[in-house]
Amino acid sequence: MIYPIRLYGDPVLRKRARPVQDFGGLKKLAEDMLETMFAARGVGLAAPQIGLSERLFVAVEYADEPEGEERPLRDLVRRIYVVANPVITHREGQVEGLEGCLSLPGLYAEEVPRAERIRVVYQDEEGQERTLELEGYMARVFQHEVDHLEGILFFERLPKAKREAFLQEHRAELARMQKEARALLKELSQR
Ligand code: NI
To answer: How close is the Cα of 103 to the center of ligand 1, in Å?
Structure first.
């Protein structure tokens, strides 16, 4: 099942999500989140982005895409992560990089600062505790997704001047997204 992705302006994106306690339906939910993420051509998707305020996200490490070839994203999957109740227990180094978000489609910020290496403790889809050491791009993806569980969006990690420039530059698109977010909420409440 593909969920509608909640857009900037939706209050669920601003809430601190609650811990996952029931792992019973998690496999199916994670599969639906992955399907939603693949359809939107993303690298990660957090539960609040489908309107579910729980500490859960999915993320995918892709193999490099062969040049000039349009292959289905699923063929390029190197590793899938289903991550519940993540805690980043160690951060090291700092790097700046490009980020976007499925809840702010078409908007990107360069120079979003993130730790270069992290250690994260979490539970997998069966509730098993796991520890991962990540660096570079996947470390960035995990930090972005963990932020979603705290109600934080990527541009808010920018230093103040760049954050204000981002909001100014994209004022029209952000206002349009807020309007769309309200329309989607209205539609969902009438279903
Ligand atoms: Ni995002």
So the answer is: 6
